[in-house]
Protein backbone atom coordinates (compact mmCIF):
# COMPACT_ATOMS: atom_id res chain seq x y z
CA UNK A 1 0.00 0.00 0.00
CA UNK A 2 1.37 3.42 -0.96
CA UNK A 3 1.38 6.19 1.68
CA UNK A 4 1.30 9.16 -0.74
CA UNK A 5 0.38 9.97 -4.36
CA UNK A 6 4.14 10.26 -5.12
CA UNK A 7 4.78 6.83 -3.62
CA UNK A 8 2.04 5.38 -5.79
CA UNK A 9 3.24 6.94 -9.08
CA UNK A 10 5.79 4.32 -10.27
CA UNK A 11 4.23 1.47 -12.24
CA UNK A 12 4.80 -2.14 -11.29
CA UNK A 13 6.27 -4.57 -13.81
CA UNK A 14 3.62 -6.81 -15.35
CA UNK A 15 0.73 -4.53 -14.34
CA UNK A 16 -1.99 -4.24 -15.39
CA UNK A 17 -2.37 -7.94 -15.84
CA UNK A 18 -4.31 -9.11 -18.93
CA UNK A 19 -8.03 -9.83 -18.82
CA UNK A 20 -8.73 -13.56 -18.55
CA UNK A 21 -9.35 -15.58 -21.70
CA UNK A 22 -12.93 -16.53 -20.77
CA UNK A 23 -16.14 -16.65 -22.83
CA UNK A 24 -18.18 -13.45 -23.21
CA UNK A 25 -21.47 -15.35 -23.31
CA UNK A 26 -22.62 -15.52 -19.71
CA UNK A 27 -24.16 -19.00 -19.91
CA UNK A 28 -20.90 -20.32 -21.38
CA UNK A 29 -19.06 -18.69 -18.46
CA UNK A 30 -21.09 -20.85 -16.09
CA UNK A 31 -20.11 -24.15 -17.77
CA UNK A 32 -17.60 -26.32 -15.90
CA UNK A 33 -16.94 -28.99 -18.52
CA UNK A 34 -13.64 -30.76 -17.82
CA UNK A 35 -13.17 -29.06 -14.44
CA UNK A 36 -12.59 -31.05 -11.27
CA UNK A 37 -14.49 -29.95 -8.17
CA UNK A 38 -14.13 -31.38 -4.66
CA UNK A 39 -16.97 -30.78 -2.18
CA UNK A 40 -16.84 -31.86 1.44
CA UNK A 41 -19.88 -32.40 3.63
CA UNK A 42 -21.30 -33.62 0.32
CA UNK A 43 -23.59 -36.47 1.38
CA UNK A 44 -26.55 -34.22 2.18
CA UNK A 45 -27.74 -30.66 2.72
CA UNK A 46 -25.90 -27.71 1.18
CA UNK A 47 -22.87 -29.78 0.15
CA UNK A 48 -24.94 -32.29 -1.83
CA UNK A 49 -26.81 -29.47 -3.61
CA UNK A 50 -23.43 -27.89 -4.46
CA UNK A 51 -22.05 -31.19 -5.80
CA UNK A 52 -25.20 -31.55 -7.92
CA UNK A 53 -24.80 -27.99 -9.25
CA UNK A 54 -21.22 -28.66 -10.29
CA UNK A 55 -22.12 -31.92 -12.06
CA UNK A 56 -25.13 -30.28 -13.75
CA UNK A 57 -22.67 -27.70 -15.14
CA UNK A 58 -20.44 -30.48 -16.50
CA UNK A 59 -17.76 -30.80 -13.79
CA UNK A 60 -16.23 -34.04 -12.56
CA UNK A 61 -16.92 -34.15 -8.84
CA UNK A 62 -15.28 -35.73 -5.79
CA UNK A 63 -17.72 -36.00 -2.89
CA UNK A 64 -16.11 -36.10 0.55
CA UNK A 65 -18.16 -37.45 3.44
CA UNK A 66 -17.51 -38.25 7.08
CA UNK A 67 -20.18 -40.58 8.49
CA UNK A 68 -22.94 -40.51 5.86
CA UNK A 69 -22.00 -43.05 3.19
CA UNK A 70 -25.05 -42.05 1.11
CA UNK A 71 -22.34 -40.01 -0.66
CA UNK A 72 -21.22 -43.20 -2.45
CA UNK A 73 -24.63 -43.71 -4.07
CA UNK A 74 -25.03 -39.97 -4.71
CA UNK A 75 -21.74 -39.84 -6.59
CA UNK A 76 -22.77 -42.82 -8.75
CA UNK A 77 -26.07 -41.07 -9.49
CA UNK A 78 -24.28 -37.86 -10.51
CA UNK A 79 -21.92 -39.76 -12.82
CA UNK A 80 -24.70 -41.57 -14.67
CA UNK A 81 -27.18 -38.65 -14.75
CA UNK A 82 -24.71 -36.05 -16.04
CA UNK A 83 -22.13 -38.19 -17.85
CA UNK A 84 -19.30 -36.93 -15.62
CA UNK A 85 -16.68 -38.69 -13.51
CA UNK A 86 -17.54 -38.84 -9.84
CA UNK A 87 -16.27 -40.66 -6.75
CA UNK A 88 -16.84 -40.56 -3.01
CA UNK A 89 -14.10 -40.39 -0.36
CA UNK A 90 -14.45 -40.90 3.39
CA UNK A 91 -12.50 -38.15 5.17
CA UNK A 92 -12.74 -36.76 8.69
CA UNK A 93 -11.65 -33.15 8.09
CA UNK A 94 -10.45 -32.80 11.67
CA UNK A 95 -7.70 -35.36 10.92
CA UNK A 96 -4.91 -33.62 9.01
CA UNK A 97 -3.34 -36.81 7.67
CA UNK A 98 -6.68 -37.97 6.21
CA UNK A 99 -7.12 -34.58 4.53
CA UNK A 100 -3.61 -34.47 3.05
CA UNK A 101 -3.64 -38.07 1.79
CA UNK A 102 -7.14 -37.81 0.31
CA UNK A 103 -6.23 -34.54 -1.42
CA UNK A 104 -3.39 -36.36 -3.19
CA UNK A 105 -5.63 -39.36 -3.97
CA UNK A 106 -8.11 -37.05 -5.70
CA UNK A 107 -5.30 -35.54 -7.78
CA UNK A 108 -4.15 -39.07 -8.74
CA UNK A 109 -7.71 -40.14 -9.61
CA UNK A 110 -8.88 -36.95 -11.39
CA UNK A 111 -5.57 -35.41 -12.58
CA UNK A 112 -6.03 -31.99 -10.89
CA UNK A 113 -8.32 -29.95 -8.62
CA UNK A 114 -9.86 -26.80 -10.10
CA UNK A 115 -12.20 -25.99 -7.23
CA UNK A 116 -12.32 -27.07 -3.59
CA UNK A 117 -15.53 -26.37 -1.66
CA UNK A 118 -14.77 -26.48 2.08
CA UNK A 119 -18.30 -26.88 3.34
CA UNK A 120 -18.21 -29.42 6.20
CA UNK A 121 -19.21 -28.03 9.56
CA UNK A 122 -20.97 -28.81 12.81
CA UNK A 123 -22.56 -27.04 15.75
CA UNK A 124 -23.20 -27.81 19.38
CA UNK A 125 -25.41 -24.81 20.03
CA UNK A 126 -25.16 -23.95 23.73
CA UNK A 127 -24.17 -21.00 25.92
CA UNK A 128 -20.49 -21.17 26.89
CA UNK A 129 -21.45 -21.49 30.55
CA UNK A 130 -23.30 -24.71 29.72
CA UNK A 131 -20.81 -26.02 27.19
CA UNK A 132 -18.16 -28.56 28.12
CA UNK A 133 -14.62 -28.02 26.95
CA UNK A 134 -14.90 -31.23 24.94
CA UNK A 135 -17.87 -29.72 23.06
CA UNK A 136 -15.87 -26.55 22.47
CA UNK A 137 -12.87 -28.56 21.19
CA UNK A 138 -15.08 -30.65 18.90
CA UNK A 139 -16.49 -27.57 17.15
CA UNK A 140 -13.01 -26.06 16.85
CA UNK A 141 -11.63 -29.32 15.41
CA UNK A 142 -14.18 -29.48 12.58
CA UNK A 143 -14.99 -25.83 11.84
CA UNK A 144 -11.54 -24.32 12.41
CA UNK A 145 -8.92 -27.10 12.15
CA UNK A 146 -10.90 -28.79 9.36
CA UNK A 147 -11.02 -25.63 7.25
CA UNK A 148 -7.33 -24.94 7.86
CA UNK A 149 -6.31 -28.49 6.86
CA UNK A 150 -8.50 -28.50 3.73
CA UNK A 151 -7.33 -25.03 2.68
CA UNK A 152 -3.67 -25.80 3.36
CA UNK A 153 -3.56 -29.05 1.40
CA UNK A 154 -5.79 -27.76 -1.42
CA UNK A 155 -3.55 -24.66 -1.51
CA UNK A 156 -0.43 -26.79 -2.01
CA UNK A 157 -2.14 -28.42 -5.01
CA UNK A 158 -3.27 -25.04 -6.38
CA UNK A 159 0.21 -23.56 -6.02
CA UNK A 160 1.79 -26.56 -7.75
CA UNK A 161 -0.74 -26.39 -10.59
CA UNK A 162 -0.61 -22.58 -10.87
CA UNK A 163 -4.42 -22.33 -10.64
CA UNK A 164 -7.22 -23.05 -8.21
CA UNK A 165 -10.36 -21.81 -6.55
CA UNK A 166 -11.36 -22.24 -2.89
CA UNK A 167 -14.93 -21.65 -1.73
CA UNK A 168 -15.57 -21.74 2.00
CA UNK A 169 -18.93 -22.18 3.72
CA UNK A 170 -19.14 -19.80 6.65
CA UNK A 171 -22.43 -18.53 8.13
CA UNK A 172 -24.46 -15.43 8.80
CA UNK A 173 -23.49 -16.27 12.40
CA UNK A 174 -20.04 -14.89 11.50
CA UNK A 175 -21.74 -11.53 10.90
CA UNK A 176 -24.26 -11.44 13.74
CA UNK A 177 -24.71 -12.85 17.21
CA UNK A 178 -27.51 -15.19 16.19
CA UNK A 179 -30.73 -15.40 18.24
CA UNK A 180 -32.49 -16.78 20.23
CA UNK A 181 -30.09 -19.65 21.06
CA UNK A 182 -26.75 -18.55 22.52
CA UNK A 183 -23.97 -20.35 20.62
CA UNK A 184 -20.83 -18.22 21.00
CA UNK A 185 -18.39 -20.95 20.03
CA UNK A 186 -20.14 -21.81 16.75
CA UNK A 187 -20.48 -18.10 15.90
CA UNK A 188 -16.79 -17.54 16.58
CA UNK A 189 -15.66 -20.56 14.57
CA UNK A 190 -17.50 -19.13 11.58
CA UNK A 191 -15.97 -15.67 12.14
CA UNK A 192 -12.59 -17.43 11.93
CA UNK A 193 -13.62 -19.13 8.70
CA UNK A 194 -14.65 -15.85 7.07
CA UNK A 195 -11.52 -13.92 7.98
CA UNK A 196 -9.27 -16.86 7.18
CA UNK A 197 -10.84 -17.08 3.71
CA UNK A 198 -10.36 -13.37 3.07
CA UNK A 199 -6.75 -13.61 4.21
CA UNK A 200 -6.08 -16.52 1.85
CA UNK A 201 -7.49 -14.51 -1.06
CA UNK A 202 -4.53 -12.17 -0.59
CA UNK A 203 -1.95 -14.84 0.18
CA UNK A 204 -2.86 -16.88 -2.92
CA UNK A 205 -3.34 -13.87 -5.25
CA UNK A 206 -0.88 -15.21 -7.85
CA UNK A 207 -2.55 -18.58 -8.41
CA UNK A 208 -6.01 -18.96 -6.84
CA UNK A 209 -9.24 -17.18 -5.97
CA UNK A 210 -10.87 -17.60 -2.56
CA UNK A 211 -14.44 -16.63 -1.67
CA UNK A 212 -16.77 -17.19 1.23
CA UNK A 213 -20.48 -18.06 1.35
CA UNK A 214 -22.38 -17.03 4.48
CA UNK A 215 -25.75 -18.78 4.52
CA UNK A 216 -28.65 -17.85 6.74
CA UNK A 217 -30.99 -20.63 7.82
CA UNK A 218 -31.42 -23.35 5.20
CA UNK A 219 -33.71 -26.32 5.68
CA UNK A 220 -31.08 -28.99 6.36
CA UNK A 221 -29.91 -30.99 9.39
CA UNK A 222 -28.01 -27.86 10.47
CA UNK A 223 -30.93 -25.52 9.76
CA UNK A 224 -33.11 -23.90 12.41
CA UNK A 225 -33.85 -26.36 15.22
CA UNK A 226 -37.11 -26.45 17.19
CA UNK A 227 -35.85 -23.78 19.64
CA UNK A 228 -35.26 -21.19 16.94
CA UNK A 229 -37.58 -22.14 14.09
CA UNK A 230 -40.27 -19.51 14.71
CA UNK A 231 -37.65 -16.83 15.32
CA UNK A 232 -36.00 -17.88 12.03
CA UNK A 233 -39.28 -17.26 10.21
CA UNK A 234 -39.75 -13.92 12.02
CA UNK A 235 -36.22 -12.66 11.39
CA UNK A 236 -36.02 -13.59 7.73
CA UNK A 237 -37.55 -10.89 5.52
CA UNK A 238 -38.75 -13.70 3.26
CA UNK A 239 -40.45 -15.40 6.23
CA UNK A 240 -38.93 -18.84 5.80
CA UNK A 241 -35.73 -20.87 5.65
CA UNK A 242 -33.96 -21.31 2.34
CA UNK A 243 -34.25 -24.47 0.22
CA UNK A 244 -30.87 -25.86 -0.82
CA UNK A 245 -31.81 -25.41 -4.49
CA UNK A 246 -31.68 -21.67 -3.73
CA UNK A 247 -27.99 -21.66 -2.80
CA UNK A 248 -26.42 -23.96 -5.40
CA UNK A 249 -26.36 -21.24 -8.06
CA UNK A 250 -24.19 -19.03 -5.86
CA UNK A 251 -21.58 -21.77 -5.45
CA UNK A 252 -21.68 -22.43 -9.19
CA UNK A 253 -21.16 -18.72 -9.85
CA UNK A 254 -18.15 -18.66 -7.51
CA UNK A 255 -16.73 -21.87 -9.01
CA UNK A 256 -17.09 -20.68 -12.59
CA UNK A 257 -15.56 -18.13 -14.95
CA UNK A 258 -18.63 -15.93 -14.34
CA UNK A 259 -16.90 -14.78 -11.12
CA UNK A 260 -13.36 -14.47 -12.52
CA UNK A 261 -12.94 -10.95 -11.05
CA UNK A 262 -14.16 -11.99 -7.60
CA UNK A 263 -11.80 -12.92 -4.79
CA UNK A 264 -11.89 -12.25 -1.06
CA UNK A 265 -15.65 -11.70 -1.13
CA UNK A 266 -18.04 -12.89 1.53
CA UNK A 267 -21.55 -13.37 0.14
CA UNK A 268 -24.49 -13.39 2.55
CA UNK A 269 -27.46 -15.46 1.38
CA UNK A 270 -30.00 -15.35 4.17
CA UNK A 271 -33.46 -14.24 3.00
CA UNK A 272 -32.76 -10.87 4.62
CA UNK A 273 -32.17 -12.30 8.12
CA UNK A 274 -29.36 -9.92 9.10
CA UNK A 275 -31.11 -6.76 7.83
CA UNK A 276 -32.83 -5.55 11.04
N1 LIG B 1 -28.28 -25.06 7.23
C1 LIG B 1 -28.06 -23.89 7.75
O1 LIG B 1 -28.99 -23.21 8.22
C2 LIG B 1 -26.67 -23.30 7.75
C3 LIG B 1 -26.54 -21.94 8.05
C4 LIG B 1 -25.27 -21.38 8.05
C5 LIG B 1 -24.16 -22.15 7.76
N2 LIG B 1 -24.32 -23.49 7.49
C6 LIG B 1 -23.11 -24.26 7.20
O2 LIG B 1 -23.32 -25.00 6.02
C7 LIG B 1 -22.44 -26.14 6.03
C8 LIG B 1 -23.23 -27.35 5.58
O3 LIG B 1 -24.24 -27.63 6.53
P1 LIG B 1 -25.70 -28.18 6.13
O4 LIG B 1 -26.66 -27.14 6.53
O5 LIG B 1 -25.69 -28.67 4.75
O6 LIG B 1 -25.90 -29.37 7.17
P2 LIG B 1 -25.48 -30.93 7.06
O7 LIG B 1 -26.26 -31.58 5.98
O8 LIG B 1 -25.56 -31.48 8.42
O9 LIG B 1 -23.97 -30.84 6.58
C9 LIG B 1 -22.89 -30.79 7.45
C10 LIG B 1 -21.84 -31.67 6.84
O10 LIG B 1 -20.61 -31.56 7.55
C11 LIG B 1 -20.02 -32.83 7.53
N3 LIG B 1 -19.11 -33.02 8.67
C12 LIG B 1 -19.36 -32.84 9.99
N4 LIG B 1 -18.29 -33.20 10.71
C13 LIG B 1 -17.34 -33.60 9.82
C14 LIG B 1 -16.02 -34.08 9.95
N5 LIG B 1 -15.42 -34.23 11.14
N6 LIG B 1 -15.34 -34.40 8.82
C15 LIG B 1 -15.90 -34.26 7.61
N7 LIG B 1 -17.16 -33.81 7.42
C16 LIG B 1 -17.86 -33.49 8.52
C17 LIG B 1 -21.15 -33.82 7.63
O11 LIG B 1 -20.73 -35.05 7.04
P3 LIG B 1 -21.37 -36.49 7.42
O12 LIG B 1 -22.86 -36.30 7.44
O13 LIG B 1 -20.89 -37.39 6.33
O14 LIG B 1 -20.83 -36.88 8.76
C18 LIG B 1 -22.25 -33.13 6.85
O15 LIG B 1 -22.28 -33.57 5.51
C19 LIG B 1 -21.86 -26.21 7.44
O16 LIG B 1 -20.53 -25.70 7.43
C20 LIG B 1 -22.76 -25.29 8.25
O17 LIG B 1 -22.09 -24.72 9.35
C21 LIG B 1 -25.54 -24.09 7.47
UniProtKB/TrEMBL annotation:
One of its GO terms (molecular function) is oxidoreductase activity, acting on NAD(P)H, oxygen as acceptor. The keyword Lipid metabolism does not apply. Residues 1-21 are annotated as: Disordered. The keyword Iron does not apply. Keywords: NADP, Oxidoreductase. It holds the Pfam family adh_short_C2. It comes from the Eukaryota. One of its GO terms (biological process) is mannitol metabolic process. PROSITE patterns: ADH_SHORT. Belongs to the short-chain dehydrogenases/reductases (SDR) family. This is NADP-dependent mannitol dehydrogenase. It comes from Penicillium subrubescens.
